[in-house]
Each structure stands twice: as structure tokens, then as C-alpha cells.
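queue> holo job accepted (heme C)
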Amino acid sequence: MKLAAATLVSLGLLAAPAFADPIRDIAAVEAIVRDRCQMCHMEEEDAAPALGTVKKLEPSIIAEMLINGSMAALTPDLTAQMKREIAVYLSGKPLPATTDLPEVTPLH
Ligand code: HEC
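queue> job finished
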């Protein structure tokens, strides 16, 4: 039994937290935005709005864009909760819990 549990942990099956992979690390969120959003969201002239404009949106709008909108194809490796954290980081506003994901409050 001990061995089976160890095997499951090494496979990552028992290590899974109650909620999917939260980041909760401001440096990690900043790195994602810097490396994966900024190049397109640099200047207001481009097709993509500048990050400063994105930051004025409600976090629910940003999260929706990342989870179900046109930004989803660019972020297939990020979980919905990670995307909610990015939305909270950008907007500076909290997101309430959903039926399956916990509340996200801004990091400082
Ligand atoms: C390959 C370029 C590209 C990358 C990378 C990219 N975006 Fe976008 N994004 C766009 C374009 C173009 C639009 C506007 C067209 C559209 O709505 O699909 C947009 C729209 C958006 C919107 C909606 C803005 C509005 O006013 O409705 C949000 C929010 C957004 N992006 C967030 C992000 C975040 C956060 C990231 C990083 C995880 C990201 N984007 C990465 C190109 C990109």
C-alpha cells in the first residue's frame, strides 16, 4: 500500500491539490505576462489593445477572454485558475469563486 501511494505521488496523481494548479506567485504571473502577453499587447496602434487598456477591464472579462475567448488558443497549457490569477493580477481586482474554482484575490 505504501508503495502504491508512493507510485501515485510520483505520477502526480496524489499530489494534485484540491483546486487546479494555482500560481499564487506574483513573480511567476509577471513572467507569464511579460513573456506571453506583452509582445502582442505592447502598443495601442496594433490590433491588440495595449496592456494598460487590458488592465482597465473587469477581471471577469479578462478571464473569460483567456478561458473561452480568442486568447485561449494562445494559452492551452495554463489552467483556468491560472488564467483567473492572470486576470486578477492585470486588473488588480478580485474574482469571486465559481462552482468549481476558488476565489482569487490580488497578490501584493
Ligand atoms: C499573438 C498575439 C497575442 C498574444 C500573445 C496575446 N494576445 Fe491578447 N489579444 C490579441 C489580439 C489581436 C486581441 C484583439 C482581438 C481579439 O479580441 O481577438 C487580443 C485581445 C485580448 C483581450 C481582450 C481585450 C478587449 O478589449 O476586449 C484580452 C483581455 C487579452 N487579449 C489578454 C491577453 C493576455 C492576458 C495574454 C497573455 C496570456 C494575451 N492576451 C496574449 C493578441 C494577443
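queue> The chain is about 40% helix and 0% strand.
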